[in-house]
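Can you make up a protein sequence with its backbone structure tokens?

===
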Amino acid sequence: SQLQNTIRSHFKYNTMNFKFMICIFSLTAIVESVSWKDCGSKAGKIASVNVTGCEAEGTCSLKHGTNVTVSACFVPSEVVKTVKANVHGVLSIIPVPFPLSNPDGCVNSNLQCPLQAGKQYCYRSSIFVRPEYPKLKLVVKWELQDQASKDVICFVIPAVITD
């Protein structure tokens, strides 16, 4: 009887753990399903990129009149004194600048400059999808550049601007 209780409690515990792990793996799959590609990071290595509107794998949906939040975790390979963010919508091969309200990555972007080599940082920023932007498919190119205008990290994400 004590053995049966031990087996039941062990089974119940393992079943709960199994369900919990399945839940965690499912959430991880959703969060990590953002389709991004490195586009020339020179002074850092990207660990992860998350963007609101990118919950489904594939193209990110950028809705008119909303703020889209971008989070990029990365590890610089050298000391970075300053960080400047540049964002472009690439149509065919033509980059069109997306103005950021705060392009200074060292201010209100979750980074404390200077950035040390080998330490992971997570940059966060938002961009407003203006109602006057045309509805279209594009590639969003996001760069974080150092004091010498070298890309610390650079990533691209397929996107569509919608109503």
The chain has a mean pLDDT of 82.
